[in-house]
Each structure stands twice: as structure tokens, then as C-alpha cells.
Design goal:
CATH topology of the largest domain: Dihydrodipicolinate Reductase, domain 2
Low-confidence stretches: none
Organism: Oceanispirochaeta crateris
Strand content: 15-25%
Number of helices: 10
Number of domains: 2
Largest sheet: 8 strands, mixed
Protein name: Gfo/Idh/MocA family oxidoreductase
Structural class: alpha/beta
Order of helices and strands: EHEHEHEHEHEHEHEEEEEEHHHE
CATH superfamily of the largest domain: Dihydrodipicolinate Reductase, domain 2
GO molecular function: nucleotide binding
Radius of gyration: 20 Å
Pfam family, one: GFO_IDH_MocA
Strand order of the largest sheet: 13-12-11-7-10-9-8-14
CATH architecture of the largest domain: 2-Layer Sandwich
Number of strands: 14
Length: 342
């Protein structure tokens, strides 16, 4: 049973706290926030200790593992401090707001031999695992198309403080809302070779995009599309479509909507039964309307990795991949040219 400390006491921290409480191998022992009153209110709610800084929290020997839940552009400094303390670290998506800052974290972790992972809890949902397994079994045949649609809505009141700022949010509908779908898409389809994209700010008075479309070419030769927005009322669940010469699978949030293969298998009925009837809206219109089950599973897996000294299901390098795609999309939109990924 590992003691966890949370950096940041905002909305996503509450989801982490609920997830930790429900795990079998971890317990929440501390939270820190630059706003001590907020940390104290959080600590009272979740029955843990409150600190006003990462430095103070790391003096607590009961804090054995740390999870960072601050705004995206505030991940770097606490991450470096935690890594230098030798503690394993789980970081909310994205790891940071650009590749330079992300790589600084991963390089220090590698140098210090500290386990670091990024939070991409959607990979742990049964529907995601079923599609990934079908890809590995080559049930799709020649894969031709892979698409991700995140047509969400945020009211103007959502964009207050750091949200929608280039400096702290790093971007808009792609890096904040669409990154989980982009992560799943590349996890299913494999590496992206190039992107051609256009991003726009069509509804909100913000510095970054609220609407984006990207055309993708995967290294396999397959093609794809990403649509990400916070400008579509009333907001719809994220949707991923994978298609090939022998099959198609479509998922919305945690639910499989289509599971059509040329070759039928005995397990298909069980897969559809397990992956239907999702109760989560996935934050399509309300950022707080996500459940914590995926977080619970990822935290449990990460703690198991800490205890067994094995790689987690999602490594730091895995968490970097979606960020690299998003940075390429931003570059393509800025230059008007296709961008090759390294």
C-alpha cells in the first residue's frame, strides 16, 4: 500500500482522490497547492494532510508516489522537483504544453532512473482494449481509415483564468479536450507519418483554437481525420472509427457502437455485452462529468509497476506520442504546409 501525494487541488485532483480511495494498493496521504486554503479544504474533504508547496509535501515520508494535477503549463517545475526526490511520478495529460518541456521531464526521469507516466485512462476501458486486441489479431484486414471526432461544447464561462491561454493551457480543443481521443487513435493505428491541418477560433474569445481539423497519413499507409472542438452545441461523446478491408469498429466514449467483422468469433457477443451501456458522458459538455474508473485502473497499474520495478502499461514515452501529433497539427496550421513527424 503506497502513500500518494497530489500536486494541485482543482477539479481533476478530486477525480484522482476518488480513484485513489477505490484502489487496492494506494492511499491518499497529502495534497499541496499554492493556495493553502484550497489545499486545506481539499484535505478536509478527502481526509489527508495539506501543504502549501511541493517542497513541503516532499518532506513527508509517507508520500511515496506523486501525481501532478496542476494546470498543464505548471507541470514542469513540480515534476522536476519530484523526480529529483526519487519518487515515482504520474502526470495528468498532457505531460507538458510542448515537446521541449515534456522531454526535459522525461530526460531527467531517465537520468535519475525514476518511473514517470502520463495519465491516459481511456486506454484502460474495455472497449479500448477490445479494439486494440482486434488490431493485434489483424481482424480489420488491411486497415485503411482511422478517425477521431471530439465535438464538444464549452460555454463562455468555462474559459476563465488559465483556460484557453497559450502560456498555461498550451492550446485549446486539441491539447486539452481531444488529446485522449488522439492518444487512442495512434495507439490503435500506429505511428503517424504526416499531418495537414487547420485550426481556428470560431466561437470563444480565447487565444487558442476552439475548432480544428487534421488530415493524417499513418506509417502503415492508412489515412485518417481528427476533428476537435469546443464550439459544437450541445456537445457529443468522443467517437473513434477504425476501418479496414475485413472489419470496422466504432466506439463512443467507453461504449462500442459498431463491431462488424467479416470473420465472426465466439467472443464477439461477450465483447459487445461488456462494452455497451456506458454511463459516462465523457465531459462532452461538462468537464466534471467523467467517472474515475479509468483513473483507478491506471493508478493501480502504476503502483504495481512501482512495486515490481516493471514498466507501466503507459510509459512516459507513450504519453509523449499524442503531444507530438498535436504539436505537428499546430505547426501545420501555422505554416499551411504538411508536417512530417519524426
Amino acid at each position: 500500500m503506497k502513500g500518494l501525494g497530489i500536486v494541485g487541488a482543482g477539479l481533476i485532483s478530486e477525480i484522482h482522490a476518488h480513484a485513489i480511495k477505490d484502489t487496492k494498493n494506494s492511499r491518499l496521504v497529502a495534497v499541496c497547492d499554492v493556495n493553502l486554503q484550497r489545499a486545506q479544504e481539499f484535505a478536509k474533504l478527502f481526509k489527508c494532510k495539506a501543504y502549501s508547496s511541493v517542497t513541503e509535501m516532499l518532506k513527508d515520508s509517507q508520500v511515496e508516489v506523486v501525481t501532478i494535477c496542476t494546470p498543464s503549463g505548471f507541470h514542469l517545475d513540480p515534476a522536476m522537483e519530484v523526480i529529483n526526490s526519487g519518487r515515482p511520478l504520474l502526470i495528468e495529460k498532457p505531460i507538458e504544453i510542448n515537446l521541449e518541456r515534456c522531454d526535459a521531464i522525461l530526460e531527467l526521469a531517465d537520468k535519475k532512473n525514476v518511473l514517470v507516466s502520463g495519465v491516459f485512462q481511456s486506454r484502460f476501458h474495455p472497449a479500448s482494449l477490445a479494439i486494440r486486441h482486434a488490431m493485434e489479431q489483424e481482424r480489420f484486414g488491411r486497415v485503411t481509415l482511422g478517425d477521431a471526432y471530439v465535438k464538444w461544447y464549452r460555454a463562455k464561462e468555462y474559459y476563465t483564468g488559465w483556460k484557453g491561454t497559450k502560456k498555461i493551457d498550451g492550446g485549446g480543443a486539441l491539447i486539452n479536450q481531444s488529446i485522449h481521443a488522439i492518444d487512442l487513435l495512434q495507439w490503435f493505428m500506429g505511428p503517424v507519418k504526416s499531418v495537414q491541418a487547420k485550426t481556428s477560433t470560431l466561437l470563444h474569445d480565447i487565444e487558442v483554437e476552439d475548432t480544428a481539423v487534421a488530415f493524417l497519413e499513418f506509417e502503415s499507409g492508412a489515412l485518417g481525420v481528427i476533428e476537435g472542438t469546443t464550439s459544437v452545441y450541445p456537445g457529443y461523446m468522443k467517437r473513434i472509427e477504425i476501418s479496414g478491408s475485413k472489419g470496422t469498429a466504432i466506439m463512443e466514449e467507453e461504449e462500442i457502437k459498431a463491431w462488424d467483422f467479416l470473420e465472426k468469433r465466439d467472443e464477439d457477443k461477450a465483447i459487445l455485452a461488456e462494452c455497451s451501456g456506458s454511463s459516462s458522458s465523457g465531459g462532452a459538455a461538462d468537464p466534471g462529468a467523467i467517472n474515475y474508473i479509468g483513473h483507478k485502473k491506471q493508478i493501480e497499474n502504476f503502483i504495481e509497476s512501482v512495486e515490481t520495478n516493471k514498466a507501466p502499461f503507459i510509459t512516459g514515452e507513450d504519453a509523449r506520442k499524442s503531444l507530438a501529433i498535436i504539436m505537428a497539427i499546430y505547426q501545420s496550421s501555422s505554416t499551411g504546409k504538411a508536417v512530417e513527424l519524426e
